[in-house]
Design brief:
single chain
Amino acid sequence: MPSRPLPRAGGSLALLLTASTGCAMTVLDTNIVAIVLPTIARDFGASFAEIEWVVSTYVLCFAALLLPAGAIADRFGRRRVFLAGIALFALASLLCGLAPSARLLYLARALQGVGAAFQLAPALAIIGHGFHGEAERNRAWAIWGGIMGLTMVLAPVLGGLIAHFLGWRWAFLVNIPIGLALGVAALAFTGESRDGAARRLDPAGIALFAGTMFAVTWGLINGQAQGWTSPSALAGFAAGLCAFAGFIVVERAQARPMLDLGLFRLPRLVGGVWAMFAYAACAQVMASLLPLFLQNGLGRSPLEAGLSMLPFALTMLIFPQIGRLLGGRLTSPRILTLGLATVGLGNGLTGWGAHLGEWPVVMTGMLVLGAGGGLLNGETQKAIMSVVPRERAGMASGISTTARFSGILIGFALLSGVLATVVRAGLERTHDAAFAEAVIAGDLPLAVAGLAGGPRDLAITHAHAAYSGGFAVALFAAGAIALASAVAVGRLMRAR
């Protein structure tokens, strides 16, 4: 069904800004919440596992539902599903802002992740459907990329300002007026469209993919909390493996599957997807992890942490443009390899700065890390889309976006698990378990409650040093993964 004529002059730009704002809201929320996590931990007296779930439930539902959300939007109408996603995202944000406990907060975050998937997928489809000529489409995606990059820069600062002046609940409540304005704009500037040949929904595939992601995340989070060989962690990993095997069987048995596994016979596609996953797991995930280190390791306030994120955010914004310039001189495999190697170097340098407790080294590492992430940000999407036949572009886009958010989910759970395990092992040699758990969760006032004078100062110093040491090990792990991925992706992308 074709789009309705837009209701006013300049509607194409208004449509682009509306859909881009819908996409940006999902990123803005993720990065603002990262700044206020230590404050949430203190207010609720939450464990580190509960704090992990505040991030993980959102990203889990987001990643698991992006492919089906796109199919539903194509079948039932992109504007209709976009409006439903906006409404659900705003409602879930209200529930997050009013949550009386950490558990209810992360359950509301799961609902917010559902809303985010049904907001982002149709927004991307609306942009793709609204701009047709190659030059027009390239200009539209360039504006979209600029808005997303600017959101990356502004989100940490906004998060720090919100936490400082309004309190952490407004990190969620701010979405309500934005959602209302966005809904009005969507009604005014977007026309309805759908795909008459849209594929049928795949309930079994959706459930098994979501089950895989949930079970693996369960294993990673409970592994750091209860031990990596605990029954809970092992059960999560085993269930994830079984669910993934079931997902492969179900998808192979269908004539029009949600995910065409035959595409993965192409080594270059595997390389592009691996690059996207590694970029998200080793670089983009730092938008959530770095604020924890800045506050719990370096002792900075939420506002200071938000401002301290600027070196990372600014290079993430600038270096996609550098990547486009390099595209005239280097092939895509070389840019992907260079980007992943730079991310590995940046992680290692930032980790070394965290180990030393030296801010100039940390800042330099963040600049390098952001530069590598910026090189990969646009190139990974292009690498995936260029390999898949044009008639499968919708599925390729879904694969790319799902790989990105799956990487953030698994990267956050894995690296934060390494962080918590190392901090716990270091502190429990000299302090009791309660002190260690409070430090890991970011609740330093609870950790030092009852102490005064010299003992209190010494305990704070130990807490900051232990957290920085744990974060350094997590960054070294991320750097090793990025460097290994650079080698693997370089070989896969050169294959025929």
